[in-house]
Write a structure and sequence with these properties.
The complex is a heterodimer of chains A (about 575) and B (about 160).
Chain A: E1 2-4, H1 25-105, H2 107-112, H3 116-129, E2 133-139, E3 145-149, H4 164-171, E4 175-177, E5 190-198, E6 201-209, H5 211-220, E7 227-233, E8 238-241, E9 262-266, E10 275-280, E11 286-292, H6 304-385, H7 396-425, E12 431-434, H8 436-447, H9 449-454, E13 457-462, E14 470-473, H10 474-491, E15 496-504, E16 508-515, H11 522-527, H12 545-555, E17 559-565, E18 569-577
Parallel strand pairs in A: 13-15
Antiparallel strand pairs in A: 1-17, 2-3, 2-6, 4-5, 5-6, 7-8, 7-11, 9-10, 10-11, 12-14, 15-16, 16-18, 17-18
Chain B: E1 6-10, H1 14-26, E2 30-34, H2 37-46, E3 51-55, H3 63-73, E4 78-83, H4 88-97, E5 101-104, H5 109-127, H6 132-142, H7 147-157
Parallel strand pairs in B: 1-2, 1-3, 3-4, 4-5
Classes of the chains: A alpha+beta (about 575), B alpha/beta (about 160).
């Protein structure tokens, strides 16, 4: 059965704080700075991932959505403007056509149509209705302009027979609005025409309208200040357009799609709404095209989206700062806790040591009584020899002999107390090179020699023939081996065999202490290294020895584990590297 | 004819053993010594001992085991355990096994003599329990305050029934 166990959560860089580290401050300082930085970094990363990142992603998501919504609403707004303007234009054209229809349906028209005067009156009435009317003319079924009232001075008779609009009218359309064209005039205009069939033939009343009128109309509408509006025909030719964008009869690249009959066209790279809105008229195949008018100055920068973005960025900067400060706090706390833990573990080691000292002291006190008893008897005997009751056999030679014995006994006492004092006295850690075999011999042959003798324990030493020194603190290692060997002896109350084996490998040395004692169950092995766990009766064992020994080894970069079976004894194995790699 | 009281001492410290034996012989005991439990038991089988001093901590058979064995093999022997440490538990334990008492080392010889006297009185009373008159006489002698005198007088009465 093999159980590997060593305390897990001890920070590797700590030495027991109760024992002051004498000669390693510089190394420890840079190591602890590195540790602090590592810890800070880890904490920051953790905090950022946990709090910052999700929030950032969420904020970014909402921001994108917000911008998208703003844009959508902007486009919708433009589209609405386009629709309104288209509707207005439709209405206007329809009204004008109605005006002309009323004219031609007027019974007076029949009789007076040739009269210039009549036509002038008609024109002024038309112009009262709407200043958009430029002139009015009557055309017969041949296309001859039979009557005219208006500003244009036709030098010669005019025949519209070949004009496309006249042909369309003749072919069947009752009312017509033409696209813009030059025709017989020098400026672009478009014509409204209304046809009626009479017994004498077809009569067409036509009137010219200038695009400027329509433009004026468009520009009075609500929302006109935000946009540049233009009316284009199905081929993209401007009909009515503001100077800022183009001129009538000019061509535009913004040709709206026929389906749907109103909407928004995206144009990549265009700022603001990112495109233009359109709406088709119903009276004539024209579309109203509405571009956003670019705003002057810095207002674009201070748009709500950018303002929101700015605030968000500031917020996250603030949050980042808070996280950083908090991380430092947390790290500080953790370091303090680690420090505290190190101190506690140091105290625990010290307590365990004192406990072993206590145990050792008991054994030593017993040992000392023997030489003391010898001294007492020798002295008593000498007094007896001077006692007349016992024959007064005082003899100088005997005196000398007994004095020697007393002297010997005194120094025997000194050796015994020294065993304890060397272990007790030193509290400073002193790292040096030692051979574990030497330390083992001291413990077996010196400190625990009497215990082993009295315990009827046979000792087998199986040391590696080629030992190498190990970097360690001698006192702490003494404590570890003392603990292991004492435990072994205690496990064999009726005697047994203690086998101590050392084996040197390339990296370190393996020391094993085997007893033929009571052994341990699976459960006991698991808990063997736990602090305060003991199988000894109350008052006999503190339960600190193994846990402290294990932590001492861990500090040296070593390890300890146990194999045992009930009734078969236990083997405790210690692994120690040649160089401390804590 | 007066026979000195036979006393067996067992201790692994040979120097201590020889010196204490000499001192007790000066005081009229017939002392035999052994450095380990096995030798002690052997000696006891060869000669009858009235009293025994047994060191507790010895290699091989320890004092408790020797005590138990002696008490088993010899009916009227009284044993005193000598110990370098004396916890209450061990005193109680050893009394159960049959020790008369425990005496910590080092000790005053005078104190040892008093203890030996008390142990011997107990032995005599047990050995001659069937003779009430004798027991009375023993108790009378036991009141004396000089242990050596008491022991001397009692030993005169210690004849095999």
């Amino acid at each position: 059965m093999k159980e590997k166990e060593s305390p897990k959560d001890k920070p590797a860089k700590d030495k027991p704080a109760a024992d002051k580290p004498a000669a390693e401050k510089p190394g420890a300082a840079t190591a602890s700075l590195r540790h602090y930085r590592e810890l800070l970094w880890h904490t920051l990363v953790r905090q950022t991932l946990l709090y910052f990142l999700p929030l950032l992603l969420l904020a970014a998501f909402f921001h994108v959505q917000y911008r998208s919504m703003i844009r959508e609403s902007h486009r919708a707004h433009l589209t609405v403007i386009a629709e309104q303007q288209a509707t207005t234009l439709d209405l206007f054209l329809r009204e004008r056509l109605v005006n002309l229809a009323n004219l031609i349906d007027d019974p007076q028209f029949e009789s007076h149509e040739m009269s210039e005067v009549y036509l002038q009156q008609v024109l002024s009435r038309l112009r009262q209705t709407s200043p958009a009317f430029v002139d009015v003319g009557v055309v017969d079924d041949e296309g001859e302009l039979v009557a005219y009232a208006g500003p244009v001075d036709f030098r010669s008779p005019v025949n519209y027979g070949k004009e496309p609009w006249f042909q369309r009218v003749r072919e069947g359309e009752q009312t017509l609005v033409t696209d813009i064209y030059l025709g017989f005039r020098s400026e672009p205009h478009f014509t409204l025409a209304v046809k009626r069939e009479r017994e004498r033939g077809m009569r067409v009343v036509r009137s010219a309208l200038l695009p400027e009128q329509l433009l004026a109309l468009l520009e009075t509408l609500e929302g006109a200040q935000e946009v540049n509006a233009a009316v284009v025909n199905a081929h993209g030719v401007f009909q009515v357009v503001t100077e800022r964008v183009g001129t009538p009869l000019g061509e535009t690249s913004s040709v709206p799609p026929r389906e749907p009959n109103r909407g928004f066209v995206e144009v990549p790279g265009v700022p603001g709404a990112g495109g233009w809105a359109y709406a088709w008229l119903s009276e004539t195949p024209w579309a109203l095209v509405v571009h956003e008018r670019p705003r002057e100055g810095s207002s674009a920068v201070l748009s709500p989206q950018n303002w929101l973005l700015g605030v968000t960025v500031l917020f996250f900067l603030g949050m980042g700062l808070v996280i950083f400060v908090r991380a430092r706090q947390l790290v500080g706390k953790q370091l303090a806790a680690e420090q505290h833990e190190a101190e506690l573990s140091g105290q625990l080691v010290h307590a365990a040591k004192l406990a072993s000292v206590g145990e050792l002291a008991a054994g030593i006190a017993h040992e000392i009584n023997n030489p003391l008893a010898i001294i007492a008897e020798e002295v008593g005997m000498l007094k007896d020899t001077m006692n007349p009751e016992f024959g007064d056999t005082f003899d100088r030679d005997e005196l000398a002999e007994r004095l020697d014995i007393i002297h010997e006994a005194v120094f025997r006492c000194r050796d015994i107390t020294r065993k304890l004092l060397t272990f007790v006295r030193q509290t400073d850690i002193k790292i040096d090179n030692h051979e574990v075999e030497g330390i083992l011999d001291d413990v077996i042959g010196g400190m625990l020699s009497k215990e082993l003798l009295l315990g009827n324990v046979d000792i087998i030493k199986d040391y590696d023939p080629e030992p190498r020194p190990v970097q360690t603190d001698r006192n702490q290692l003494v404590q570890v081996f003392l603990n292991l060997i004492k435990n072994a002896v205690d496990a064999m109350p009726t005697g047994g065999t203690l086998t101590v084996r050392t084996k040197h490998g390339p990296e370190g040395v393996t020391v094993s202490v085997r007893d033929t004692g009571t052994g341990m169950t699976e459960d006991q092995m698991k808990r063997a290294f736990h602090p305060f766990f003991t199988t000894k009766p109350p008052g006999k064992g503190t339960g600190l020895g193994l846990s402290v020994s294990a932590s001492i080894l861990k500090n040296f970069g070593g390890n300890m584990y146990v194999e045992s079976a009930p009734g078969k004894g236990s083997t405790f194995t210690v692994e120690l590297p040649y160089e401390i790699s804590a | 004819m007066r026979q000195p009281i036979k006393l067996l001492i067992v201790d692994d410290e040979s120097r201590f053993l020889s010196t204490i034996a000499s001192r007790l012989r000066l005081r009229g005991f017939d002392v035999r010594t052994a450095v380990n439990g096995f030798d002690a038991l052997e000696l006891a089988r060869k000669e009858p001992f009235a009293l025994a001093l047994i060191d507790l901590k010895m290699p091989g058979l320890d004092g408790g085991q020797v005590l138990a064995q002696l008490k088993a093999e010899h009916r009227f022997i009284e044993a005193i355990i000598l110990t370098g440490h004396g916890t209450l538990d061990s005193v109680v334990e050893l009394s159960k096994v049959g020790a008369f008492t425990c005496l910590p080392k080092p000790f005053e010889l005078e104190k040892l003599l008093v203890v030996l006297q008390q142990a011997y009185v107990v032995r005599m009373k047990k050995k001659f329990a069937g003779d009430p008159d004798l027991v009375d006489r023993i108790e009378g002698i036991a009141c004396g305050d000089d242990p050596r005198r008491v022991l001397e007088q009692l030993s005169l009465l210690d004849v095999e029934p």
